[in-house]
Amino acid sequence: MGVCLHLSCFLQKFRRWQVISREQHLVNGSIRAREVRLIDSEGNQLGIKPLREALSLAQEADLDLVNVAPQAKPPVCRIMDYGKYRYEQSKREKEARKKQKTIQIKEIRFSPSIEEHDVNTKLRNVKKFLNNGDKVKLSIRFRGREITHQDLGRKILVRMAEEVKDIGDVERQPKLEGRHMIMILSPKQQ
After folding, report:
1. Which domains are present in the chain?
2. Which of 26, 42, 45, 160 has the greatest CB tally within 10 Å of its CB?
3. Which long-range contacts (CB under 8 A, 24 or more apart) does 111-120 make?
4. What is the predicted pLDDT for the residue at 18?
5. What pTM value is reported for the model?
6. HEC per residue, the chain
7. pLDDT over threshold 70, residue 47
8. Of the spans 10-14, 27-31, 45-49, 165-169, which averages the highest pLDDT?
């Protein structure tokens, strides 16, 4: 029982002190500088120390030696609990992602020979998407000889932009790309 407990402690320390290189931070044995500018766990500067001495100070404190500024001369290393640091950093990133608003681009397709009722239905969808804060990509596909009537497609897109001008702005004017005419609308900023 005592041997297993001792072995598990050894494995835990070994995992902690093994060479770890995540998020561009060099930790413990992966640091390759001869001398480092050392900062202790409270944030006090201890000055420039040889790497072996810095590693032994970190080991005595039962913490990790982390290279926080590898580009500096000499590199700046800090004594800290690296696992706790990574955990707190991931929590901060998760909070930042929660606060971000992801803007999606919704696409609505038309044809140049679309009927009035269909235009009204698609217009309702465009308004709904813009009110939800999404961008809308309006595209018209010209088939066969329809490509000769690009003005019909442009009229439909301009009409859509006019109908939603109070809730949306034209981010990209109607432009022909191959057999598709594309216009992008974005919601108005509040």
Report:
1. 21-90 (3.10.20.80), 105-187 (3.30.110.10)
2. 160
3. 111/140, 111/141, 111/143, 111/146, 112/140, 112/142, 112/146, 112/149, 112/152, 112/153, 112/156, 113/146, 113/152, 114/156, 119/156, 119/159, 119/160
4. 44
5. 0.50
6. CHHHHHHHHHHHHHHHHCCEEECCEEEHHHCCCCEEEEECCCCCEEEEEEHHHHHHHHHHCCCEEEEEECCCCCCEEEEECHHHHHHHHHHHHHHHHHHCCCCCEEEEEECCCCCHHHHHHHHHHHHHHHHCCCEEEEEEECCHHHHHHHHHHHHHHHHHHHHCCCCEEEEEEEEEECCEEEEEEEECCC
7. yes
8. 165-169
Across the range 140-161, mean pLDDT stands at: 89
The residue type found at 84 is K
Q: How far apart are the first and last CA of the chain?
A: 66
CA 62 to chain centre: 34
Tokens read off for 124: 């309702």
